[in-house]
Specification:
mainly alpha; 3 helices; 65 residues
Amino acid sequence: MPQRRRDEHTAVTAEYAFFLAETRGLRFALDYLDNCHIPRDILIRAIEEPTQRRRMERRRNPRND
């Protein structure tokens, strides 16, 4: 479970950085990621290819809940 918690924290941090990039600018968002020790390429990829942004997070097959 610790890995999942870290991944969720990284995802929330990356989403907030994306919000900061849209509202305050890219430099501010990259500095925020540096302070959180999250790789910058997460945000850069999201900005360069917005259609690919959440593609990998979604399940390929829906669950039967």
